[in-house]
Write a sequence for this structure.
């Protein structure tokens, strides 16, 4: 659902009117702010790692994605939140030609200068930077940089923006509940209940797993990264 679709569903329940106001109506930016509050609630709910928020650098197309020989630092995408695994370099045909094992920044002190690894430094306020070690060789110049990472949820800024969440009606109910609360409408509680039900159902589905992706966390305590 686009934000315009969400706004239409929201307004139909809020006013029970057949016609939806245009984007120039005062209700439109109010609804968008409430919708973004709902997105924030979803992305931070119960420390859930939502499947929909995993992506790759090349898929997002943001940040420094091309190797410059001798350069070790590359800006991560703006929506980068947490790293997800190995950093790879790919040629123009999409073939992986080099891999960097990912380590925590605090473990760099234990690595040798010639070891092959990568790590991310920074913070959400100023952004993150990918650091490669050793520096890419001249024959790597122009290769594409790619890695899996967990991103921040997309906020609505235009009517055509689409949320990542599986059930956008959570946004409808959550925005409606907060609108009712601000206007001291007694239907606030029922709208909030609808929103929380939708949120818990999304979490249940997210955490249930499937036959090839079970919900149990695998025990890799006896394994060692890079071996």
């Amino acid at each position: 659902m686009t934000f315009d679709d969400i706004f239409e569903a929201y307004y139909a329940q809020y006013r029970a009117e057949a016609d939806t106001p245009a984007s120039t109506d005062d209700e439109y930016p109010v609804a968008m702010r409430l919708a973004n509050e709902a997105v924030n609630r979803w992305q931070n709910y119960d420390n859930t790692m939502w499947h929909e928020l995993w992506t790759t650098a090349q898929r997002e197309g943001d940040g420094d994605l091309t190797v410059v020989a001798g350069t070790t630092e590359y800006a991560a995408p703006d929506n980068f939140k947490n790293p997800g695994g190995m950093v790879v370099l790919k040629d123009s045909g999409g073939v992986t030609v080099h891999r960097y094992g990912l380590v925590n920044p605090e473990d760099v002190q234990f690595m040798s200068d010639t070891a092959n690894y990568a790590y991310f430094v920074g913070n959400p306020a100023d952004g993150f930077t990918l650091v490669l070690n050793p520096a890419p060789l001249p024959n790597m110049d122009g290769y594409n940089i790619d890695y899996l990472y967990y991103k921040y949820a997309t906020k609505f800024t235009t009517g055509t923006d689409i949320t990542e969440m599986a059930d956008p009606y959570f946004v409808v109910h959550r925005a409606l509940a907060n609108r009712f609360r601000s206007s001291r409408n007694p239907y606030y509680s029922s709208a909030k209940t609808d929103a929380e039900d939708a949120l818990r159902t999304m979490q249940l589905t997210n955490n249930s797993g499937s036959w090839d992706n079970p919900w149990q966390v695998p025990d890799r305590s006896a394994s060692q990264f890079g071996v």
